[in-house]
Write a structure and sequence with these properties.
Length: 299
């Protein structure tokens, strides 16, 4: 059976994914990426990373890897091992503890392989995590940040709202969409910021949490904001140092990897040097959207 290859363009980065057994693993597993598929990569561009999906991939010998991190998220468990050549092996398990995928990468995540397990839903979950993690880590070397935020576009500029899950970022964005003219939703969970020629831009991605908003769209970054629940609505502008400490926790990262973390910190610095940052203390109401828009929107 011939391999099946697809090229994605996410945040203007090109990614190649090759399925060695397309009868079992194919493009249906990355259906949220359909708007990001392109027929070919421009000759003057490099791939951000190349991924091979091969279910015959075997775990790296235990003598060649050390456990770095084992953590649970709302969707499952991620187990990360550092390899003796500087690369990584990552296992993704679902909420029932079933292993859904295994990822093996080189040091900068430019070359990766992954194996999938289970039924269609398990494979879909496993591959989505492999593609997204690799995008975050490979992108860190290219002035690119994946952030946890809900992203609205207003008058052509993108405004991401960050917060701990359950704090109300999606609710605040819904108030903008309902009450502020000239708004549309770009992404509701994992947008990407990229610095190009010294200017920050923000993009929709194939990953949008529970909201199916998989839009291949781009906008200049208007402002960075963090949502904080309060008993009345007001906006606090942050100093550069405060902005850095507000933005950094929202970025997908590997703090134990010195190179990746340094690149992410450098990119966050470029963002806060060029973009205002705020904390929006608010209620879940119309006034909150009106107050925040009046304060943070590019005039």
């Amino acid at each position: 059976m011939n391999p099946e290859t697809h090229i994605l363009c996410i945040a203007e980065h090109y990614i190649k994914i090759t399925f060695l057994n397309p009868k079992l693993n194919n493009v249906s597993l990355i259906s949220s990426s359909v708007n990001f598929m392109v027929p070919e990569k421009p000759a003057d561009q490099e791939y951000l990373y190349e991924m091979v999906v091969d279910d015959d991939l075997k775990p790296i010998e235990k003598s060649r890897r050390d456990r770095v991190r084992d953590f649970e998220s709302g969707n499952g468990t991620t187990i990360i091992d550092l390899l003796d050549d500087g690369g990584y092996q990552v296992l993704f398990k679902d909420n029932r503890g079933n292993e859904c995928s295994m990822l093996q990468s080189n040091k900068d995540f430019s070359k990766v392989k992954c194996a999938l397990k289970g039924n269609f839903d398990a494979r879909h979950f496993g591959l989505a995590n492999c593609v997204m993690l690799t995008m975050s880590m490979a992108g860190s070397y290219k002035d690119t940040l994946m952030i946890h935020a809900s992203l609205v576009r207003h008058n052509g500029y993108g405004y991401p709202f960050c917060a701990v899950s359950g704090t109300g970022k999606s609710t605040h964005v819904s108030m903008w969409l309902r009450y502020i003219p000239n708004c549309d939703l770009m992404n509701d969970d994992n947008p990407i910021i990229r610095i190009i020629d010294g200017k920050p831009y923000i993009y929709g991605t194939p990953w949008s949490g529970k909201t199916p908003c998989y839009r291949n769209v781009k906008a200049p970054l208007g402002a960075m904001s963090r949502i904080d629940r309060a008993d009345h609505n007001y906006v606090e502008k942050l100093s550069p140092i405060e902005a850095f400490t507000s933005v950094l926790p929202s970025c997908s990262s590997m703090k134990w990897d010195i190179d990746i973390y340094r690149h992410i910190c450098d990119t966050v610095t470029k963002v806060v040097e060029t973009t205002n940052a705020y904390i929006i203390h608010c209620l879940p109401d119309r006034e909150a959207a009106e107050v925040s828009c009046a304060t943070i929107a590019v005039k």
